[in-house]
Amino acid sequence: MRRYLIVANRTLAGSQLIGKVKELDERRECSFYVVVPATPPHGHTWSDGEARALAGSNLEAALERLANIGIAAEGEIGDERPTYAIQDVLGRREIDEVILSTLPPGVSRWLKRDLPRRIRVEFGLPVIHVTGPPAPETL
Q1: Burial 19-55 (b: 16+ CB within 10 A, else e)
Q2: Which class in CATH covers the domain with range 2-131?
Q3: Contacts of 106 (CB under 8 A, 6+ apart)
Q4: What is the pTM of this model?
Q5: 107, 98, 100: which is closest to 134 by C-alpha?
Q6: What digits encode the pLDDT tens for the residues 73-96?
Q7: Tag placement on the chain: N or C end, fewer CB within 10 Å?
Q8: Where are the domains positioned within the chain?
């Protein structure tokens, strides 16, 4: 069984990511674990509690969407820094590959920080990179 770690926030319930997860699940037996870094939205003044609440809302929506297509997944809210959130999960779970979902180039702060390459180098894991539009922010 292939074990995937999904790392996303604003694009978490988007059709691009959900489609990729469905495609992988159809190829072979898989398990999925989701970590949502509690990254505050750009251009807003948010408290840590509000950023975590938004990440929690995104996580719930994604898990529900995955369940609706027959994919069982678990997840958690992680540190606002994606690499720390990944490191925390890797300390407790065996993961074979990371699925990273970001906003498109030019908009994504994670891509500006070269996150796909950093994950490959720092954690020695293959990365599937998916981009998509942001979900509406609600609180």
Answers
A1: ebbeebbeeeebbbbbbbbbbbeeeeebeeeebbbbb
A2: alpha beta
A3: none
A4: 0.91
A5: 107
A6: 999 999 999 999 999 999 999 999
A7: N
A8: 2-131
